[in-house]
Design brief:
- By secondary structure, the chain is mainly alpha-helical.
- It is built from 8 helices and 2 strands, in the order ααααααααββ.
- β1 and β2 form a beta hairpin.
- The relative contact order is 0.05.
């Protein structure tokens, strides 16, 4: 506004001699041209105001960008010694040492526990194997006894399946533990290392890597928990079998006890009746 006032004042001063000349020297003033000149002066003043506003906005935007950059730079700096202060070691899996393998039946099992391979061979070498029931002898058994034998075989086979699966899980986790530990060490080094590695993109990458490592670790934990549940299910099956076997025995006893006792007492009575006692104390049979 100050600029506009100055321009209008200068225009008035410039028009004052022309006005005197109009009446004194014969020079004629054109009002149209004067109005056009004033309009141009007003437009120039408006353009100046707009340019001033644009400059002010540009300066404010620059200051905001500089402030955001300084904040990002400060956030990218790692406090000295902070990572070492909270650094902690974690327990690592170790391979099982080799055994004397006196009778040659432990090496395969140790190998299965360390690497998760050849679990069937390790199980067969270190565990007692059941023998097949003779077919002729099995068919000669009554139905209840056959059911008991079949049940015991099923329990043994389930135990073998869950045990070999657990051996494979433990061996795989143990064999992969060194590579997993190396990745954790690399992630820890990147977290507490060069400030240049603390950019927003680098931090997001490290967060993603940490989440993936956590997911893999949780997967191993879930496998161990599943193996533990399987072993508990086998133990529960054995308990259920024992309870059901006791119930079946009780039912069998209640159904067959009168006949067994009748046969026993009948045979005993007949034997006693066949024995006679003489007056001189001698026993003779009829």
């Amino acid at each position: 506004m100050k600029v506009l006032r100055i321009v209008l004042s200068l225009a008035a001063l410039s028009l004052a001699p022309l006005a005197r000349a109009q009446f004194g020297s014969g020079i004629v003033l054109d009002p149209t041209q004067s109005a056009h000149a004033l309009q141009q002066i007003v437009q120039a003043s408006q353009l100046y105001t707009q340019a001033t506003q644009l400059y002010t906005t540009a300066v404010a935007t620059r200051d905001q960008i500089v402030s955001m950059y300084n904040l990002a730079y400060q956030m990218a700096q790692i406090p000295q010694g902070l990572a070492q202060r909270y650094q902690a070691d974690w327990s690592q899996w170790t391979s099982l040492p080799s055994t004397p393998n006196t009778y040659g039946n432990t090496a395969a099992l140790i190998n299965a526990l360390n690497f998760g391979t050849n679990t069937q061979q390790g199980y067969a070498a270190a565990y007692i194997q059941y023998q097949s029931y003779p077919s002729g002898s099995y068919s000669s058994l009554d139905a209840d006894t056959q059911a008991i034998v079949a049940n015991q075989y099923a329990t043994s086979e389930l135990n073998q399946a869950t045990t070999t699966s657990t051996l494979a899980t433990l061996g795989t986790i143990r064999s992969d533990s060194q590579a997993f530990a190396a990745k954790l060490s690399a992630l820890e080094a990147d977290t507490s290392g060069d400030p240049g590695e603390q950019t927003e993109s680098a931090l997001l990458d490290k967060i993603n890597s940490a989440i993936l490592l956590q997911i893999h670790s949780q997967q191993d934990t879930n496998q161990l928990l599943a193996a533990s549940v399987e072993q508990q299910m086998i133990a529960q099956k054995q308990q259920i079998d024992a309870q059901n076997r006791a119930i079946n025995n009780a039912i069998y006893f209640q159904q067959n006890f009168p006949n067994v006792m009748q046969q026993t007492t009948g045979g005993l009575t007949q034997s006693l009746q066949s024995i006679s006692l003489s007056t001189n104390g001698t026993v003779s049979g009829r």
